[in-house]
Structure formats: C-alpha cells, structure tokens
Amino acid sequence: MPYCDSCGVELEADSKFCGHCGVRVKVTEPIPPPPFIPAEPPQVPKAGKPPHTYSVMLVAFLVVAGLLAGWHFWTAGRKMEPTAPRTATAPTVLKKESVTPPAKPRPATPAKEPEVRLDAFVYYNRALLYKEMGEYEKARRDYQKGKDLDRNIPPMSFP
C-alpha cells in the first residue's frame, strides 16, 4: 500500500489525494526490472607465450649483460693473483748490459746518492713516528740507532 509523501499516512490503492492532509498523490509507475542480458563466456587464452613475455625476457637479458659489464670494468684494473706478504729486503741493483752508444751524447747524470741500509731506514722512520706522537725519548733512541748504523740518514731535530 502507498503512503503519503507529505504526512506519511497510509493511502488507499486508487486514491488521488491524501484523505488526511489533502496533498495530491504522485502516481508513480513501477520500474520494470532491467532485461536479462546473459554474461559473455570467459575467453580462453590462446596457446603459446603471451606477447609481453618477450619484452620481459629482453629486460632480464639487458640487466644481466649490464651486471656482467660492470663487473668486468670494476675488476679490470685489479690483480687477480694473491700477493705475497711484503718483507724488508735490500733493493736490487740492475746490471748494465752492453749496448751500443747512441749517436748523440747523453746529458750528464746526477751524482748517485749514497745507499742507505734498510735497518737504518727502519729506525729513522720509527723515530719520525715517535716524534709525531710526542714520544721524544723513543724518537731520540731510534734516531741514534739508525745514525749508528748509517751516517747518511737525514738529520732530525727534537724539541
């Protein structure tokens, strides 16, 4: 049964006015349900690879190629062989081989510096380190030991 839109009283089915407030009743046609439209059947994918698979494979290939190229350039300048631990050894002296003299005379070579023994050099460097750390007694002691071994080490002043 319909109801009045103004006062909410129940109306008779065929009335055109509300018996309580006198407002004209709106005649509304019932809304028919929408027609039934059957759903489309789901589409079955075609056999084979989908088209985006090739682009994914191309991107994966480019990423791997980029990583390999980066690794190659990163390791290009590095030595791959293990290095032996460094030991204190005397420097090797190269021997002069017999060579025919060049057409033009060579300029005069500078005088050779006296060869410093390795032990004196080690004491001198330790003295420099002690001096930087402010341990002047140890620095004087190591400098004197180096000076006793070789008189050609450079002079050092202490505060």
Layout of secondary structure:
Blueprint (H helix, E strand, L loop, with lengths): L51 H24 L42 H16 L2 H14 L10
Helix pairs in contact: 2-3
Quick take:
This protein is mainly α and 159 residues long. It is 34% helix and 0% strand. It contains three helices and no strands.
Strand content: under 5%
Note the gap between the termini.
116 Å
Mean pLDDT: 77
**Count of DSSP H/I helices:** 3
Broad structural category: mainly alpha
Shape: elongated
Radius of gyration from the CA trace? 51 Å
Can you count the beta strands?
A: 0
Order of helices and strands: HHH
Helix content: 25-40%
Low-pLDDT parts are none
> Mind summarizing the main beta sheet?
none
Report what the structure shows:
The chain contains three helices and no strands. It has 159 residues and is an all-alpha fold. Among the domains are: 1-29; 118-149. The radius of gyration is 51 Å and the shape is elongated. The protein starts with 51 loop residues before the first helix and ends in a 10-residue tail after the last helix. The mean pLDDT is 77.
